[in-house]
Specification:
The protein contains 4 helices and 7 strands. It is α+β, with helices and mostly antiparallel strands and 207 residues long.
């Protein structure tokens, strides 16, 4: 049996259609108006927001693929470029922080380390760019919705900085992270993952 060809990619317009689950058509974080996750405005899709962030010299996501099947995805951007944050009732992220809007892993691969590896890739990229703070809202009730469950982020090292019953604001000080001893690609190749066919999976919590 041929070895799986795994890779982790920086998000650009050409990769939006390859995002797993409903991520490719979800514009909840990219818009401020009423609507539910999974619906993009008729006038523009997720690609438009990705292009705007890229114009600022920032790739807003990491995508893990194996043999052209999408396995997991994390989306993040400077908090000022996440429109939904301005209309939410949750604690407001810190000025200048990088905000994680979503961590997604396909259901068949939960509990195998892909979610943590996505965060490893983000934190390493941001550390090189001299970013200091990574923030998100960890969900304590609806664990299946983005950004992701509070426990998942806490296990990685995020700490609550602004309390909230449903979605406390959590922060990771990037300067506190120990350097990885291996490359992200090497870590990805060593993960024991089964082969998957097809690229469309329902939304679920990350692991």
């Amino acid at each position: 049996m041929a070895a799986q060809r795994r890779k982790i990619l920086d998000l650009d317009r050409s990769l939006v259609s390859a995002l797993p689950g409903g991520c490719s058509t979800c514009c909840f974080w990219e818009t401020t108006g009423a609507g539910s996750p999974g619906t993009c405005p008729a006038s523009e899709g997720k690609e438009s927001w990705v292009s705007r962030v890229l114009e600022g010299g920032f790739s807003p996501g990491k995508l893990i693929m194996s043999d052209n099947v999408s396995l997991g995805y994390v989306q993040f951007a400077p908090a000022g470029m996440v429109p939904r944050l301005s209309s939410m009732l949750y604690p407001v992220p810190t000025d200048g922080s990088i905000y994680i809007t979503c961590v997604y892993v396909v259901p068949e691969l939960r509990g195998r380390g892909l979610g943590r590896l996505l965060l490893d890739s983000v934190s390493r990229t941001l550390h090189r760019s001299r970013a200091r703070v990574l923030e998100t809202h960890g969900l304590s009730r609806d664990r299946s919705a983005p950004p992701g469950p509070a426990g998942f982020f806490e296990e990685y090292g995020f700490r609550v900085v602004k309390g909230h019953l449903e979605a406390p604001l959590m922060r990771l000080d990037l300067r506190s992270l120990a350097p990885l001893q291996e490359s992200i690609q090497s870590l990805l190749e060593r993960l024991p993952l089964p082969s998957l066919a097809g690229g469309a999976f329902p939304r679920t919590e990350p692991r």
